Amino acid sequence: MFSNFKAAIAKAKTTAEESAMILLLLLFMIVRLI
Q1: According to the model, what pLDDT value does residue 2 have?
Q2: How far apart are CA 22 and CA 4, in angstroms?
Q3: Which domain of life, per UniProt (predicted)?
Q4: How far apart are CA 7 and CA 12, in angstroms?
Q5: Given this model, what pLDDT does residue 12 score?
Q6: What distance lies between CA 30 and its chain's CA centroid?
């Protein structure tokens, strides 16, 4: 059960990093349009 919990945390961490990168890319595109 503990290893399952650790895997879930690792998965959530990578998902957060991916969404953060996507947000940065969107922000960059918006700034370039202005």
Answers
A1: 74
A2: 27
A3: Bacteria
A4: 9
A5: 87
A6: 19
- For residue 1, what is the DSSP state? -
CA geometry: angle 22, 16, 2, nearest 5 deg: 155
End-to-end Cα spacing for the chain: 50
24-26-32 Cα angle (round to 5): 105
């503990």: which residue's tokens?
2
| Token pair of 17 as six digits | 């990093």
What pTM did the predictor assign? Answer: 0.59
8-state DSSP, 34:
-
Going by pLDDT thresholds of 50, 70 and 90, the confidence category of residue 9 is confident
